[in-house]
Amino acid sequence: MLTLNSNRLFLIALLVTGAMLLVFPYALAAQNKEIKQVPITGSDPSSGAAMYKTYCAVCHGTAGKGDGPAAAALKVAPGDLTRLSRNNGGKFPELRVYGILEGTVTLPSHGNREMPMWGDLFRSLQRSDSSNIQLRLRNLTEYVKSIQAK
Fold first, then answer.
1. Contact 56, 112 (CB under 8 A)
2. Residue of higher predicted confidence among 144 and 1
3. What string of DSSP letters covers 117-132?
């Protein structure tokens, strides 16, 4: 039979408490995931792929599967953009995607009408050059269409 004296019990309690104090901040940080806010930058309006990488990949992932680096910090997981056609009876929902990008079609997962990463940029472009915004929306919609799963 193993017996512990009070000194050993105290030492064990001290070690356990110390270990908990070391681990607790990391556990707390893991629960409080945050999205880092960065300044909005422009991107080439003629390249849907470049705009996707700049504006969308942080949440939707580089392949569009909803696994971007900011995805874990979101309340609602980003959608898998490669499955839009499959989820729409095999037809790409072009007008819906364009409307979501434009801000005229809302999604509960996006909160209000503004896509968090680039809504301000697109609105500022729209005020200064409406043909530029339409080019951006068309090319980004086409890019999302191009990454649909076969």
1. no
2. 144
3. TTHHHHHHHHHH-HHH
Does the pTM surpass 0.70? The reply is no
Predicted confidence (pLDDT) per residue in 55-93, tens digit: 889 889 999 999 999 888 888 889 999 999 999 999 999
Mean pLDDT calculated for residue range 107-126:
60
Average pLDDT, the chain: 75
Domain boundaries, the chain: 1-32, 48-146
Q: How buried is residue 145: exposed, middle or buried, by Cβ count under 10 Å (0-12/13-18/19+)?
A: middle
Q: How far is residue 71's CA from residue 59's CA, in Å, rounded to a whole number?
A: 5
Distance CA(31)–CA(33), nearest Å, equals 6
Query: Residue 57's closest CA among 75, 37, 71?
Result: 71
Alpha helices in 56-107 (DSSP H): 57-60, 94-102
